[in-house]
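> example.struct
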C-alpha cells in the first residue's frame, strides 16, 4: 500500500502488472503516468492506442 508521500505523486498504469497504482510503486520503465485520477490511469492503454492512431493518420507526418 502506498504511503502519504506516494499518494501525492498521482496515479499510474503499470505495464508489467496491468494494474492502476497510486504513487510510484513500480519502476518508471514499467509505468505510464502520472495521471490526475484513477479513472484516467485505468484508461491509459486505450488512450495511448487512440493517440497512436491519431498520429499515424496525421497528414503532417505523412
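> example.seq
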Amino acid at each position: 500500500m502506498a504511503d502519504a508521500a506516494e499518494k501525492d505523486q498521482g496515479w499510474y498504469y503499470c505495464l508489467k502488472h496491468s494494474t492502476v497504482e497510486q504513487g510510484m510503486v513500480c519502476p518508471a520503465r514499467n509505468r505510464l503516468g502520472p495521471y490526475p485520477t484513477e479513472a484516467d490511469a485505468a484508461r491509459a492503454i486505450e488512450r495511448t492506442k487512440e493517440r497512436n492512431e491519431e498520429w499515424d493518420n496525421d497528414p503532417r507526418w505523412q
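> remarks
The first helix runs from residue 4 to 7.
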